[in-house]
Design brief:
flat; 2 strands; DUF1468 domain-containing protein; mainly alpha; two-stranded antiparallel sheet; transmembrane helix
Length: 152
């Protein structure tokens, strides 16, 4: 199956999905008992509605554009070219895993795993890069301790 898309269409759809989800979540995240016209949820609501508007404009602009790339959807998903395109997705998955692990295993261990895991994932071969990343985590931990900020 062949599909013609451009970056504006893809970005417009992704941000439209995110902004609609955020718009739906606002009432549960920002509870206000105020009855005035301007409440604590007013500015976030306006910003997200602006984001919806910009997403729709971007999507329409992408649909009306003549420059589109043709993609063939087939069963060959795990080609080397497609795996290289997944690098940002895997990086985001590492960040999500970090956020999920942080409360359970603590700041030092989860940050060491993230910093060194990212270096390993992107193919860093110099050992002192790993040492610097690990030292930064330790220094950050003790800096926050010195400021009496509790880390998980």
């Amino acid at each position: 199956m062949k599909v013609k898309l451009n970056s504006n269409m893809i970005t417009g759809v992704l941000f439209l999905i995110v902004s609609v989800a955020l718009h739906i979540l606002i009432p549960s995240q920002i509870r206000t008992y105020e009855t005035s016209a301007v409440t604590a949820a007013t500015v976030p609501t306006l910003l997200i509605r602006g984001m919806i508007l910009c997403s729709v404009i971007l999507l329409v602009q992408g649909i009306l554009s003549k420059e589109k790339t043709e993609y063939t959807i087939s069963g060959a998903i795990f080609t080397k070219e497609n795996l290289l395109r997944l690098k940002p997705v895997i990086y985001i998955a590492m960040l999500i895993a970090y956020a999920l692990l942080l409360p359970h295993i603590g700041f030092i261990i989860s940050s060491l795993l993230l910093a060194n895991g990212i270096l390993l994932y992107f193919g860093t071969r110099k050992w002192w890069f790993y040492a610097i990343a690990s030292a930064n985590v330790i220094v950050a931990y003790f800096a926050f301790q010195a400021m009496s900020v509790t880390l998980p």
